[in-house]
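Assemble and predict.
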Amino acid sequence: MDQDHTEALVGAVRRAIETRQPLRAHGHGSKAFYGNPRAGEALHITGHRGVLSYEPGDLVITARAGTPLAEIDAVLAAQGQMLGFEPPQFGGRGTLGGAIAAGLSGPRRPWAGAARDFVLGVRAINGRGESVRYGGETIKNVAGYDLARLYAGSLGAFGVLLEASLRVLPVPETELTLVLEPADPLQAMIDWQRRPWPLSGLCVDDGRVCLRLSGTADGVNAARQQIGGEELPAGAAFWQALRNLELPFFAGDAPLWRVSLPPATPPLDLPGDWLLDWGGAQRWLRSPAPPAQVWAKAAAAHGHATLMRGGDRSGGVFQPVSAAQAAIERRLRAELDLDGVFGGGRAAR
Amino acid sequence: MHVTESRTADHAGLLAALRRVLPADGLLTAEAERRVYECDALSNYRALPLAVALPETVQQVQALLRLCKEHGVPVVPRGAGTGLSAGALPRTDGILLSMTRFDRILEIDPDNRIARVQPGVRNLAVSEAAAPHGLFYAPDPSSQFASSIGGNIAENSGGVHCVKYGLTTHNLLEVTLVTMDGDLLTLGSGGLDGPGYDLLALVTGSEGMLGVVVEARLKLLPLPESIVLLQAAFPDLERAGRAVMDIVAAGVVPAGLEMMDQVAIEVVEGYIQMGLPVDAAALLLCELDGATAEVEAQLERVQALMRACGGYDLRLARDADERTRLWAGRKGAFPAMGRVSPDFYIVDATVPRRHLSGILRRIGELAEEYGQRVATAFHAGDGNLHPLILYDGGVPEQVERTEKLASRILDECLAVGGTITGEHGIGAEKIDKACRQFADPVLEDYFAVKRAFDPSGLLNPGKAIPTLTRCAELRGSHVHHGHLPHPELDRF
């Protein structure tokens, strides 16, 4: 199955640069709903696939961008390891390139780190049609500007990802999910997060707190004794459904917002239903509220909001950035995407 | 090394204007006062700045940068000056911008587990302020007692604990910077991610070349319930390296995993007589932290793995005093070298962990080839090596051999997929070596980043990112059929 399509992809980008034809890197299309709508000729990356190197003792895997996440998960699981940021796999699909370009992270994010935190290096086709490598394979590396992390979450604005080197984590020996119904779920989450427990998931859905513990059997059991609550037998399936936005909360057509906030922020005064993830730092909102209202409330709470799915997307889906940041972003795109072929519009205006 | 630049700008005019915007005692121009700032902790690179500015407010920093831009005068930002790669090396034609007066912890927010600080705050002071709330700030460079948060952000500092808790980049939520244009730019947010592209990642570790940090929000973590430190001796480097790989592959993420080689053990033992096994080829120190039950279970596993790899003379420290005693060996390695050698040169490089034993063996061979003694004490968990080359600065041949040997070691690390700096930065020190690591197209993209943030190129110029011209000269060109790579560049 392993195939190196570097040459063909570089050729396609060079042709696009010559003709100034915008491109749109396309994997499995599992996240096609995400980001600002944009045109561009589809550049298929799924053929460019395969794990290039993996050494369990190094906790690092390098694979081509088109490699299905399912394949990477299987390779890692065989050695008792995993992608620590739990990338969402909408519809059970997705490629490594798509996971990094989208930069989305699952429920483990506050304790393990985000997609960008696991990126050690990338190889990409830059705005001059050259295959370049930023970063490396080592956890400690302070040489050069961190363009590899800039690629995470940029939705392909700066180049076409060819491969990525990611730090991986050991699969915890034991994992269990507790369900609790504290009087004040948000306060309970704040308190628990200040304790040195092996937390790996903390969310509030419909007034019910789901708490995941990951670690050694002894460590998880000791924390469980202190926390109390009932064990959720289908815990793994619950977190999987949360990660992929497949819980009942996410069903239906109401616009879905992702609101990123300081975790202890009191409930925002916005109409709609809430599901709190990441111990309160990532909040999902189903709401008909106009985007400007959601963005204003999020900004006032020192956070930001993204219209994740549905709703009126014509005015952009991402929180507008400050004028100073917008100016730098424009210059950066003009400098790195000289002919505008990567069309940064999907991630920014 | 002394750095000189031509002085053509209207320096007198600039200094007069700076006096009007800075506090009365905020501009140092007397030579004796400027001398204090002529180098950072890498003291063999020195240059006397035109003047030293000590602003106290964000507005003063903005005004200073605008004035310098107007006059076309470079600015070198500086934190506590503990950097080890001459990243804060001044320019004789530029202003040295010291941020030490920005020394306030603005807020500890225990519910959100955030510290909001000014850049001049010392790293350790953050953890000290957070401790009463049961929290701490994870990045812990060896210089944490003295180094400042602003400098840590500029260098993307890590430390012993970054194998588990990451570098500064993993623990930074938001920064507010002043750009060379004098604009205020806030990146990140109070949450776990920020809006827009991840410019926070670009700024972290950019060696003060993209903006001057004036405020930061740092992530705080719960203090672990239990910390243990295990030390084991190994009969050869291969088995010690194997133990490092096995511990990690077994699913244990230690809080710290450090190694010392035989030369380092012997020198340290001679220095502090703590009963280290001087016959051992390597000493491994493994720190575990977390909830007590978690730590106990991991400890059992690590002890078994170390023994299975031939580890012997296992010593365990369970309380803070015992830990301090065991750490004294590793932490005493650098000062101990000063006792047996007039000078030593610290190399900072990283290799993928699987290459650790091979690189250590190769360093031993190279040490022999160059006739210089090399001790190695390093962060094994991250593959971050610190070979210490012992030499006598009074003997010119030794200085030359040391530089060549250091260069060879870096080449070996690059050859196995490593990097020329794991934690010290490139600064002015490794600017030439950076030509080896970065291909020209990558350098072009770095210049593009620099232009986007600092089109005038006046912020800490000459650090971190080498020019193509410099690289063309240093790499040595293989001319094939008369075709010179990059014929457009001025050479030699």
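Chain A has eleven helices and 17 strands.
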